Amino acid sequence: MSNFPQVSEARQKSLQQSYEAVLSQVNLISSTPVRLVAVSKLKPASDIMALYNVGVRHFGENYVQELITKAQELPKDINWHFIGGLQSGKCKDLARDIEHLYAVETIDSFKKCKKLDTSRTSHGGSEINIYLQINTSGEEQKSGFALDDPELDQTVEYLKSEECKSLKLKGLMTIGSFTESTSEGDENLDFKKLVELKQRLQGTHGVELELSMGMSSDFIQAIKQGSSSVRVGTAIFGERPPRN
Ligand SMILES: *Cc1c(COP(=O)(O)O)cnc(C)c1O
Question: Residue 183's pLDDT is what?
Fold first, then answer.
């Protein structure tokens, strides 16, 4: 018996089924490989184990302390994606305490980018993939670089430079607005803006960028518009409890 958290047989079966249902939808509409990241925030470590048991290795978490705790009690070959709002003061904790941090998807300032790089370099650990978060909808309550923020170009240049030792620029991330994700139109305009920005940045900086866009309510549309990584929580794990 391993010391990993145990999951009941019923829960194992139900999570496996919902994961496979989402995965088959993803595979049905994508012509190129799309990564499905299982967003497990506020769900118990035993739920993560259930999917781990059937081969899932990419999980997304939103809260630094919760991620650190889960990473300590779960298998070391899980690829963790930090997808929550990142405070500058927490960059150090992330860099130091999660050896297998696969990606930080919510870098929204040059300062945080540099802080994360410096801390990771001094503490050691695998290279971290970076997605720059973009506030495509321009909503005030959303984090992310504004579409025309010059600091965005500065951050891309830093990630490309020799100065940057422990981070790798992987792509752009956005959370579409509720209005766009529920509107009847053919296209999600927030996703469209992210695609256009990707093209501009690739042209200007000579980089290759992937796109992390799409959640439970809009991942199908996101894939149709070119997403390479979708972050799905509720459709796999069910409704989340309130955070206290
Ligand atoms: C919670 C969260 C998700 C998952 O949302 P669901 O609607 O439950 O699929 C995806 N991305 C981010 C950034 C999140 O915070």
Answer: 85
Count how many domains the chain has: 1
CA atoms of 203 and 206, how far apart (whole Å): 6
**To test the ligand 1 pocket, which listed residue (216, 230, 231, 243) has its Cβ within 8 A of the most ligand atoms?**
231
pLDDT in tens, 59-68: 999 999 999 9
Q: Say yes or no: CB of residue 83 within 6 Å of ligand 1.
A: yes
**Quick check: is 144 in a domain?**
yes
pTM recorded for the entire structure: 0.97
Pairing, β 79-82 against β 101-107: parallel
Range of the domain at 25: 9-237
Residue 185 pLDDT: 79
CB of 176 within 6 A of ligand 1: the answer is no
- How many angstroms is it from 114 CA to the middle of ligand 1? 26
